[in-house]
Amino acid sequence: MSLPQKVKIIEVGPRDGLQNERQTIPVAIKIELINRLSQAGFSNIEAVSFVSPKWVPQMATSSEVMAGIARQPGVTYSALVPNMRGFEAALAARMDEVVVFGAASEAFSQRNLNCSIAESIARFADVAKAAKQHGMTLRGAVSCAFGCPYQGEVSPQAAASVVAQLRDLGCDEIDLADTIGVGTPKKVQAAFELAAREFPLERLMGHFHDTYGQGVANVYASLEVGVTTFHTSVAGLGGCPFAKGATGNVATEDVLYLMQGLGIETGIDLQAVVEAGLFISQHLGRKPASRAANAFTARAQQTA
Ligand code: HMG
Ligand code: MG
């Protein structure tokens, strides 16, 4: 299959990235990060989640964050919601899109949502119905699609089965998520090929964490089998608090550099993303976890 001319990149740093930070990040910093990303050209930013603050304290300020951002026309702002309580909060915050997040592994579903996969799907059914009623788009996530921190191996069949259940709820797009970053290219391709029997490939998305350094390779492998939407995180922020040892998503800057080299259009200003990454990294007191961002910064310092 030839590579696409254009891909969609969903920036998930403000949610998937920041949720994992231990220090409380001020609302103003979260707002500034989202505003900077909004101006960089993303068509979709996963900005917040409306989950139990006991489970994920960092996301407790999501309503304030959404009330404070400067919404950019044409940008879809998304929020994760695990149940109707979360949906109501998302509606009040005027989210454009809600994301229900299931898992391909029973063990992870219990740790992340405190219920079985079947119970989670039943809860999502109400959320899906309400989202449609309110004209919001609906995304579905399949966590641990390539491996689980508690259960180990996860078969492509298990991931495809959750894809089918999310499809039946009416999800507009569905991602296969490598929560702990263990996937490698052939495994990723096999899982997408199986998932594509359940749901149109053009609406499947890759969500790769970079724990084992496979993020960019997995993006490329997905491109080869026809996937054209990816989730990435500015400065490689993040991880999941319920998957110990998992590091951030593949860095947005690294994926944009890859796409630039392949001549694939993204509509996103790489330099603006590098600067947004430096902004948040400075606040967190560390260097961006993006090879491309650090290379650009070093080059700029040399020529200054
Ligand atoms: P529970 O304890 O079984 O449920 O949690 P509960 O109904 O007993 O609620 C517990 C408390 O939370 C109650 O408060 C509820 O009112 C409150 P209390 O009465 O004790 O004071 N509560 C809420 N508060 C705010 N918003 C809500 C909400 N719901 C209940 N929506 C629950 C069940 C699903 C709530 C919990 O397990 C939860 O919030 N889980 C979310 C976990 C999470 O956010 N994980 C990270 C995101 S997933 C991820 O990162 C992976 C992904 O990136 C893909 C990948 O890489 O794999 C998507
Ligand atoms: Mg994730």
Show the helix and strand layout.
Layout: E1 8-11, H1 13-17, H2 27-38, E2 44-49, H3 62-68, E3 76-80, H4 84-92, E4 97-103, H5 106-113, H6 117-133, E5 137-143, H7 156-169, E6 173-178, H8 185-195, E7 204-208, H9 215-224, E8 229-232, H10 252-262, H11 270-284, H12 291-303
Parallel strand pairs: 1-2, 1-8, 2-3, 3-4, 4-5, 5-6, 6-7, 7-8
Bound molecules: 3-hydroxy-3-methylglutaryl-coenzyme A and magnesium ion (MG).
Residues 16, 19, 49-56, 80, 82-83, 85-86, 101, 112-114, 141, 143, 177, 179, 207, 209, 240, 242 line the site of 3-hydroxy-3-methylglutaryl-coenzyme A (HMG).
Describe this structure as you would to a colleague.
The chain is an alpha/beta fold. It has one domain: Aldolase class I (TIM Barrel, Alpha-Beta Barrel). The protein contains 12 helices and 8 strands. The protein has helices spanning 13-17, 27-38, 62-68, 84-92, 106-113, 117-133, 156-169, 185-195, 215-224, 252-262, 270-284, 291-303, and strands at 8-11, 44-49, 76-80, 97-103, 137-143, 173-178, 204-208, 229-232. An 8-stranded parallel β-barrel has the order 1-2-3-4-5-6-7-8, surrounded by 8 helices. The protein binds 3-hydroxy-3-methylglutaryl-coenzyme A (HMG) and magnesium ion.
